[in-house]
# Entry
Amino acid sequence: MQTQNLSKTKPQKKQSSSAKKKLILIMLGGIIGLLNGFFGGGGGMVCVPTLEKGLGIESKKAHATAIAVILPLSIVSSAIYIFRGQIASLPLLTVGLGVIFGGIAGSICLKFIPAKTLKIIFAILMFAGGIRLLI
# Structure
């Protein structure tokens, strides 16, 4: 009978650990959403490391997944800003067009950039962004 109890206990611990990890990831997702909605972007700076370190997703997949995660969030945030009349239409159209082409080019380039190089580029951009905010 003790063997049966032990075998039942182990899956419960595993399920508890899995539930805890999911809860932590949901909370991190909330932080990512808050950053993206509050700053108008930047959620990827938290999302990518969370996917890499928290879930063990390799760098290229983490970057691609971050884009997919942030897309619906950006749509919702944009709708709120549009509803409040906080969007300037000319930059939306002109910069938006450039962003579309840049996004396509970036997703194509991601396929050819080595993971190590991608991490270095990402780290430099994060560092430069931080310094820019301080200056």
Summary: The longest helix spans residues 2-39. The helical segments are 2-39, 44-55, 59-83, 89-112, 115-134.
